[in-house]
Amino acid sequence: MTEFSTVILAAGMGTRLGRPFPKPLTHLDDGRSIMQQQLQNLATIDQDGHVHIVVGFKKELIMEEFPDEIFLYNADYSETNTSKSLMRALQRTPPGGVLWLNGDVVFDPRVLEELRPYLNGGESVVCVNTAAVGEEEVKYSVDADGFVRELSKGVIDALGEAVGINYVAHGDRDVLLRHLEQCGDNDYFERGIETAIADDGMRVRPLDITQFAAVEVDFEDDLARANSLFHK
């Protein structure tokens, strides 16, 4: 199997959910925190080593909760967005591809099984849900060959939403890193992907995982929806 690293982006302050602690530590109705279910899901793809977690806001709480993982610190977490957290991860993780998750996504572990052929094959992927196109969500369109053309909140006539689970293949990693370094501090990492596609011809496959539940928890309604889908 192709060597790759796993990363969780968990530096943000999570102000929209309004918890006094990092959003990934929010507990679900099944008793697990969002990050705990993510780590358990990542363990299902039999990846050797530890998950790299980019921390920032109240980082000690996450580090104490999961002491066996590897931590990367985004010291500028209050002034920067996910482009700079992912940039740090690509700068510091071992050579190879990188599978990364937003620290607030609750998802069915079968999503990772859908990703497995791409992890083996070395193709960059953005997981998408074609059943919904929310106004505040990152959306996508495709080119004539079916690869991602646009990836932002402002896409017109979008085909669906990005769900916050992505993979950059080894061959695309340096290109993406360069574009993340050029992103503005407030840019999401999707901006780096979009400019790498437009300026350097990076090819990114949209992987439709609509059949599996995946919820990014930004607001209380999202948390309620995640609990309704996953708590048995």
Structure, explained:
This protein is an alpha/beta fold. The chain contains seven helices and eleven strands. The longest helix has 13 residues, at 170-182. The chain is globular and about 45 Å long.
Number of strands: 11
Q: What is the overall number of helices? A: 7
Rg calc: 16 Å
End-to-end C-alpha gap: 34 Å
**Class of secondary structure makeup:** alpha/beta
The share of residues in extended strands comes to 15-25%
Mean pLDDT: 94
Overall geometry: globular
SSE topology string:
EHEHEHEEHEEEEHHEEH
Helix content: 25-40%
Show unreliable segments. Answer: none
Q: Main β-sheet, in a few words?
A: 9 strands, mixed
Q: Helices and strands in order, then pairings?
A:
Layout: E1 4-10, H1 34-42, E2 52-55, H2 59-65, E3 70-73, H3 82-92, E4 97-102, E5 105-107, H4 110-121, E6 124-129, E7 139-142, E8 148-152, E9 160-168, H5 170-182, H6 189-200, E10 204-208, E11 214-216, H7 220-230
Parallel strand pairs: 1-2, 1-4, 2-3, 6-10
Antiparallel strand pairs: 4-9, 5-11, 6-9, 7-8, 7-9
Helix pairs in contact: 3-5, 3-6, 5-6
Question: Could you list some keywords that capture this structure?
Answer:
232 residues; alpha/beta; nine-stranded mixed β-sheet; two-stranded antiparallel sheet; 7 helices; 11 strands; 32% helix
